[in-house]
């Protein structure tokens, strides 16, 4: 099956089921069914049990749609594929890895500064515990 070109996702925090249906080319009843089949898909439910999807869930739905409709996976196959990759979208995983790398040097600097401050406090309090650290 040919890859369908889907509309761009607007910069909004929440999307209704109707909006997600249009953005992903899937009918609302299918989205409700996929909620039961894919544990990663958990839209926020508000007043009147209305579903509100966030950006990452729209991406997940597009990925599920691609696996089922374009790559020919079964529901079980798509579920296993999503579970084995840990994330619905490889770009999200890459972004998260980049953020971890960027955060690591900052975190180690903060830990070292904190360690020095603790040692100074211990010295002020008596100094005997500082040799244990």
Automatic annotation (TrEMBL):
InterPro entries: DNA-bd_dom_put_sf, MerR-type_HTH_dom, MerR_fam. One of its GO terms (molecular function) is DNA binding. Residues 80-102 are annotated as: Disordered. CDD domains: HTH_MlrA-like_sg2. Residues 14-84 form the HTH merR-type domain. PROSITE patterns: HTH_MERR_2 (PS50937). Keywords: DNA-binding. This is MerR family transcriptional regulator.
């Amino acid at each position: 099956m040919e890859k369908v070109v889907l509309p761009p996702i607007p910069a909004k925090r929440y999307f209704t089921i109707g909006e997600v249906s249009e953005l992903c080319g899937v009918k609302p009843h299918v989205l409700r069914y996929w909620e039961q089949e894919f544990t990663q898909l958990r839209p926020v439910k508000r007043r009147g049990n209305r579903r509100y999807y966030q950006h990452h869930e729209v991406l997940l739905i597009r990925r599920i749609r691609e696996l089922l409709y374009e790559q020919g996976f079964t529901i079980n196959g798509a579920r296993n594929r999503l579970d084995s990759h840990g994330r619905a979208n490889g770009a999200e995983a890459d972004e998260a890895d980049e953020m971890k790398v960027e955060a690591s040097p900052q975190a180690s600097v903060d830990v070292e500064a904190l360690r020095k401050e603790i040692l100074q406090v211990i010295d002020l309090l008596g100094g005997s515990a500082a040799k244990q650290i």
